[in-house]
Amino acid sequence: MPTLLRATVRWLAALCVVAGSAGLIAPGPARAAAGDVHVLTLDGIINPISGRYLERGIREGAETGAEAVLIELNTPGGLLDATETITSAMLDASVPVIVYVTPPGARAASAGTFITMAGHVAAMAPSTRIGAATPVSGDGSDIPDDLREKIINDTVSYARIIADERGRNADWAEDAVRDAVVVTATEAVELGVVDLVAESRAALLEEIDGRSVTVRGDEVTLETADAPIAAFPMSPFEDFLMVLSDPNIAVILLSLGSLGLYFELSAPGSFFPGIAGAIAIVLGLFSLGTLPINYAGLALLLFGLALMGAEIWVASGGVLGIGGAVAFLLGGLLLIDDTQAPFMEVSRPLIYGITLALVLFSLVAVRAVMRTRRRPVAIGGTDMVGLTTTMRSPGSVYVEGELWSVRPAEGVELAAGDRVRVVGRDGMRLIVEPLSDAAETSDTEDKES
Questions:
Q1: Which of 183, 264, 330, 331 has its CA 20 to 30 A from that of 300?
Q2: Measured between alpha carbons, how far is 314 from 324 in angstroms, rounded to an integer?
Q3: Is the predicted pLDDT of residue 147 greater than 80, yes or no?
Q4: How far apart are CA 153 and CA 437, in angstroms?
Q5: What is 29-234's CATH number?
């Protein structure tokens, strides 16, 4: 195994040990006991990661006999598929689920509206808001009128089903979908969208104590005033995946991954750049899979990276590099479907900076390639004739930093350590003869002069 490959394997193994050790010493979730109120926190976009987290939290709450599962929510919205996963788990839950929009100033926008209304108890902190649940196209294009009507009607039915199931204002839910209506916490209570406004978690649990809710057709009386609180945050792995679910991280990973692959292709056998680059690209694609992507933007982004990479090997005079930079820049600006997630975008300074860095990298790489192409041929029939060196062994020498097989001139015997002069070449073997003391002295004087 090559030395560099062994070092890379050892480095990766050490990284795994460190990560595993960190997982062992990291604080885990609270110990669950029957009668506890399990607290789940969702502060950010709704995506497959957060969907899995809430679904798992509700299931574990039911399995451990929790008094209730409390979801503290602050979200600008997210993906409809993940939202349906969460609301399905809530509607089918065998444990009471309480949704609390908090802290003050937070919102349950878009998909968060459905999650809030799907709770057995829905509450909001003061100065919070809810609404704007109109569906939009997933590819950034305008939805044709007939298709838009079908999607709107389907989402309206979805909202009304949730509202009717929980005894909430179905007409308002329809308005939130059709007209993107938004209301404050106080207005939401007056309209029958949520049940109450609570100043804090403790005030909420105190106020709903003794309230009856229907759980799978059975009446359940909540006993939350004195119930122990058990916080269940995301696992370290879920936190890591949520960090990846950021368009800026996705662009950085794809860019670094491409650079790693360029280095590996330019110098095969380096291993580490190729391994790191492949991992970065896979993580970048995973990140994109959790985001509302404009696929035209993604295609431009990848096309731009490919063109800038091709500039290194193809003498295009900079045409490929410039075209790649333009495609990459446009792809980064269009990457996120802002009609589906207007709260999310790739940082403009970041995309400009990465584009400039990639262009500079391409120019430096192209310049290095052109310098290499203009160099005189280093190996030829007579280019090494006259060079002097020392025998490494009876059959090999180092010449110009390379190891060559040799054969002595006719009638000559050589040993390791002898000084020799190259007098010719026979295929891939050099022909050498002993270097006399006078000739060596002459060569030394020539070099000094």
A1: 264
A2: 13
A3: no
A4: 98
A5: 3.90.226.10
